[in-house]
Specification:
By secondary structure, the protein is of the alpha/beta class. It has a domain at about 170-310 and about 370-454: Rossmann fold (3-Layer(aba) Sandwich). It contains 15 helices and 11 strands. It has an 8-stranded mixed β-sheet with strand order 4-5-7-6-8-9-10-11, with helices on both faces. Strands 1-2-3 form a 3-stranded antiparallel β-sheet. Strand 8, helix 9 (about 280-290) and strand 9 form a beta-alpha-beta unit. Helix 8 (about 250-260) crosses helix 9. It is globular and about 55 Å long. The chain starts with a strand and ends in a 9-residue tail after the last helix. Residues about 1-50 and about 310-320 have low confidence and may be disordered.
Length: about 450
């Protein structure tokens, strides 16, 4: 049975003790309170002192995520706000329907502009449509074989590809050789020269896409003279949806082939390659850096040392009351999914991206994702980020990774006072990139550049 106290719901298995509501695959801490949404969310609303449109924390965050990319060409403010106002809060079908309608309308703008030879207008519309289609697809997880998942995601990617042909700096679609297949990605450069440059390798985390990373990171890094190599690994983007590749804990076996690929290129300086992981990427990137010592720097945004929160382990009395029956655990989780939009999405997307059929199997798989024994192997300068109002991770959980690292390290805090305290600083991407890229500029600036290869 499940034990509900103020911090979590627990279960013990014969091997694994997991805090189910703190499952904390993203370090999630679910408080014993409602956010006041019509969807009945129980998610703790520590993230916001105010809401944009939705009272539901998950819906509010995803709106901020879409809206925040207005500064990098991925959204227009009124398009987002008017779309949100049409959505029935807590209704995932309503979310899909309204964002899809906006995306379809904006894509048509792009098609008409392209036909008329208005290339700048076409590019701008395609970029916004790409972000809106990604947003529309986000909650489509009730049926993991729903054909709209693949269809809507492809529309997002294809709109980005159309925009990429019109962007005024090189955007090259690449395929990275990997374990008998390839991983999808993009190389973006500030100009058409083959000058070897400092390069930022970026991957997303639990639910993002490679295309989204253009708005979130690449747009800003390119302005500072970086090459940006974006790739999608198992569990992400096209690698998941088209190739059926699921998350794996040994991320170094994903990053090493990416670096092999990068270092063969004349336009990438092999001495100045940094790796940035977003969200769950805050676990994945440091994991890779522990074994891949060619990296000049690594950034974890945010710090994630363990996808299951050890601090949520039950007391001895609670252990006596818990169950080892997977069927009962699955039943309890599914009951909670009916009344909590964020928890429902998290479990559904976790099964989708980890290739699991039952919640219990997902939770068991997550026990393999921790850096307790390997964080000390990292050798390169490491930036660990803590966001004060991160609704997925407690401050202590983010700081734990920093404590485990023995290499040169920096702890960077984003706070409510600077209006950047949200998970991955969503809604504050200008300030986020300013501080992160300043750190990278300083760190890579200490390394002499490589001369052009003939």
């Amino acid at each position: 049975m499940f034990i509900h106290n103020r911090s979590s719901i627990f279960y013990t298995g014969p091997i694994l003790i997991v805090g189910i509501l703190s499952l904390v695959f993203l370090g999630i801490s679910y408080a014993d309170q409602h956010s006041g949404s019509s969807g009945g969310s129980m998610i703790a609303s520590a993230i916001n002192e105010f809401k944009v449109v939705f009272m539901d924390t998950t819906y509010d965050f995803e709106l901020r995520r879409a809206l925040g990319y207005s500064v990098s060409g991925g959204a227009d403010i009124n398009e987002c706000l008017h779309t949100a106002r049409r959505i029935k809060e807590g209704d995932d079908e309503s979310w899909y329907r309204e964002w899809r309608a906006t995306a379809d309308r904006v894509m048509v703008i792009g098609e008409k502009a392209l036909a008329a030879g208005k290339l700048v207008s076409a590019r701008e519309a395609y970029l916004r449509a790409s972000n809106y289609y990604r947003t529309a697809e986000f909650f489509l997880r009730a049926k993991l074989d729903d054909p709209r998942i693949l269809e809507t995601w492809r529309l997002s990617r294809d709109c980005f590809l159309k925009a990429a042909e019109l962007i005024d700096h090189p955007v090259e679609r690449v395929k990275v050789p990997w374990e008998g297949t390839t991983l999808p990605g993009y190389i973006m450069k500030p100009d058409k020269s083959n000058k070897p440059r400092k390069t930022l390798v970026v991957h997303t985390g639990f639910d993002g896409t490679g295309e989204e990373l253009y708005f979130e990171v690449a747009f800003f890094a390119l302005k500072r003279g970086y090459n940006v190599l974006i790739f999608e690994g198992p569990g992400q983007g096209a690698a998941l949806r088209e190739q059926g590749l699921y998350f794996r804990p040994d991320w170094e076996k994903v990053v090493t082939p990416v670096l092999d690929f990068a270092m063969k290129r004349r336009d990438i300086d092999p001495k100045r390659i940094a790796l940035l992981g977003i969200s769950m990427g805050g676990y994945l990137a440091p994991r890779a850096a522990a074994f891949e010592h060619r990296l000049a720097a690594v950034v974890a945004n945010p710090g994630v040392h363990n996808l299951l929160d050890a601090k949520s382990a039950p007391t001895a009395q609670e252990k006596e009351k818990t169950s080892e029956d997977p069927a009962l655990i699955n039943k309890g989780i599914r009951e909670m999914m009916q009344t909590d939009s964020g928890f429902r999405w998290w479990i559904q997307h976790g099964m989708f991206s980890f290739g699991k059929k039952e919640p219990f199997d997902l939770v068991t798989a997550l026990s393999e994702y921790h850096l307790d024994e390997v964080a000390g192997l990292i050798k390169c300068p490491t930036l660990v980020i803590v966001s004060e109002n991160d609704h997925f991770h407690t401050t202590q959980a983010q700081e734990k990774l920093y404590d485990l690292i023995k290499a040169p390290k920096t702890l960077m805090r984003f706070t409510n006072a600077e209006m950047a305290g949200e998970h991955c600083q969503m809604g504050s991407v200008i300030l986020s990139n300013q501080k992160i890229l300043d750190w990278l500029d300083d760190t890579l600036g200490k390394i002499g550049g490589t001369k052009a290869r003939r």
